[in-house]
From TrEMBL:
<dbReference type="GO" id="GO:0003824">
    <property type="term" value="F:catalytic activity"/>
</dbReference>
<dbReference type="InterPro" id="IPR035994">
    <property type="entry name" value="Nucleoside_phosphorylase_sf"/>
</dbReference>
<dbReference type="GO" id="GO:0009116">
    <property type="term" value="P:nucleoside metabolic process"/>
</dbReference>
<protein>
    <recommendedName>
        <fullName>Nucleoside phosphorylase domain-containing protein</fullName>
    </recommendedName>
</protein>
Length: 221
């Protein structure tokens, strides 16, 4: 153990980690730019950062199930015991852009977590930050625009409230590898209708910065 974690974090003992799903360069700079960087590694899979005061690690640019699995595997390799995943999701039920949700029923169609429904052991009282919505059904699939008869059938039968690319793999991998995991999703769009709306894009980024600031402050306390 330790080779993966030493590559990304410069240590085989990785402290608590915040894992950022999707492209989050602006929130990352805004929230973590004031911390002293002890080590960093940027790669095509994801980027890892080790900070001090407080002891904290961050993985950013986790996009899709394969990258999500490799991120969790790297944390396990570094003996990391706790992680918080924060990503974006598409709403299927009319959430507002920027809302923070924590689903409790999750299914994966992403080639890694396709083994039935996941029901993570999470309570609202245990969360570091209280979401706008706790509960609900969530589906992770292979790609944003990927469509197939299987996906259509699953959406029709499961009726997910939200969809992303990473969460199911994050939950499954962290559970299998014994890493305590909290997770939050921020609504970025509503069934593609808001993808290119600059005002709503800014709202999701503002919400992400606000959420990450709250999580960071809890780690510092």
């Amino acid at each position: 153990m330790g080779k993966l974690s030493e590559t990304y974090f410069g240590t085989d003992e990785v402290p608590q980690c915040i894992v950022l799903g999707g492209y989050q360069e602006a929130p990352f700079r805004e929230v973590f730019g004031d911390l002293k960087t002890e080590f960093s590694c940027e790669s095509s899979c994801f980027s890892g950062y080790l900070f001090s005061d407080p002891p904290l690690s961050v993985i950013k640019n986790v996009y899709g199930a394969p990258s999500a699995y490799e991120a969790v595997k790297t944390l396990k390799d570094g003996n990391c015991r706790a992680m918080t995943f924060v990503g974006y999701a598409q709403s299927r039920v009319g959430h507002e852009i920027g809302e923070v949700i924590v689903p409790t029923r999750i299914k994966g169609l992403d080639s890694i977590s396709n083994e039935g429904e996941l029901k993570p052991e999470v309570s609202k009282e245990s969360l570091m930050v209280q979401p706008d919505e706790f509960g609900g059904r969530h589906l992770s699939k292979q790609a944003v625009t990927y469509e197939s008869q299987e996906v259509d059938r699953e959406i029709e039968s499961f009726e997910p409230h939200s969809i992303d690319l990473e969460l199911a793999t994050i939950v499954k991998a962290s559970n299998n590898l014994g890493i305590d995991c909290q997770f939050y999703l921020i609504i970025s769009d509503r069934a593609f209708e808001d993808l290119f709306d600059e005002k709503k894009k800014n709202r999701k980024i503002e919400s992400m910065i606000e959420l990450l600031t709250k999580i960071k402050s809890r780690f510092a306390s």
